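Worked problem 6 (solution included).
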Amino acid sequence: ETFTEISELMDAAPDVAEKKLATVKEFLAELKPESLAGRSQLAQAKQILANFEETLALSRVPLADLEKQVDEKPNDLNLLRKYSRKVSQEINPIARTEPEKAEALLKTAKARVEKLSEAATEKEVKTVLEQIERGFSAFARSIEHGHKIAALIGKPAPAWAVEEWANGSPL
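Solution. The predicted structure is:
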């Protein structure tokens, strides 16, 4: 099994993904590579595993809970990073298929980050909040594409004005 397969299960079947991650963790714990390259690959695999475990755990936390927590602790860097990842988890899958809903989530997140920026007192926190705000532009582009796709649904395809044929005879 691969991390790609587990990644696909994280949304569809998180309990199955969790069991598979536990199996991977056990397997990696048993490995004792002798070469430097092997030890490096093992370290990378463990880092990927940790990232997957964190992502899975975060997927089970409601966005509203994280919003409340960051509002209460605007200078908590770890919490801000989790909030940013959660916003991404919520918006990315629906940006092109449900652009209105994604747009509403993005609008709420932008407003919250703006408020947090005003409340933040630490320079590093303000820097992270600026990074989060810059990341919102990628969401906005995906949502814009989603609106364009939605506008095409139910409309007839444009007529083609074909002048030449390749790889076959004209119809």
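Discussion: The mean pLDDT is 91.
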